[in-house]
Design a protein that fits this description.
four-stranded mixed β-sheet, 2,3-Dihydroxybiphenyl 1,2-Dioxygenase, domain 1, 8 strands
């Protein structure tokens, strides 16, 4: 078996919250847009990453996903995110921290998703 990507589906009560996090803060682009449909949906892309965002109140209440984004430049990512969207920094990991397992990490969260940035 050969796989090329893992593409998560993320559900929001209000999809605009996801767009703030992924597009405004993390600089993903909207590759496919059905935001004005009866069931708002879009595909977000950045580099080789892809995420499907859905507006679905019921599924959003059932799921609170957490992801790790691995980077080779965590200090740069932290500088950009903390300057542009400090309100998203997770209170338990709001600075780049060397963790006991040897990785540097910091985290952000919004109303629906937690993201841990990691550099080994």
């Amino acid at each position: 078996m050969n796989f090329l990507k893992l593409v998560p589906n993320i559900f929001y009560t209000d999809i605009s919250e996801g767009l703030k996090l992924f597009v405004d803060c993390l600089e993903f682009i909207v590759g496919h847009d059905e935001l004005n449909s009866a069931q708002p949906f879009c595909v977000l892309e950045k580099d080789d990453l892809r995420i499907n965002l859905f507006q679905d109140e019921q599924l959003a209440k059932e799921h609170y996903p957490e992801f790790r984004l691995v980077t080779n430049n965590i200090e740069d990512v932290y500088a950009k995110v903390s300057a542009s969207h400090p309100q998203l920094l997770h209170p338990n990991l709001d600075k780049v921290t060397l963790r006991p397992w040897g990785a540097k990490e910091f985290a952000i969260k919004d109303t629906q998703v937690g993201i841990i940035f990691q550099q080994w």
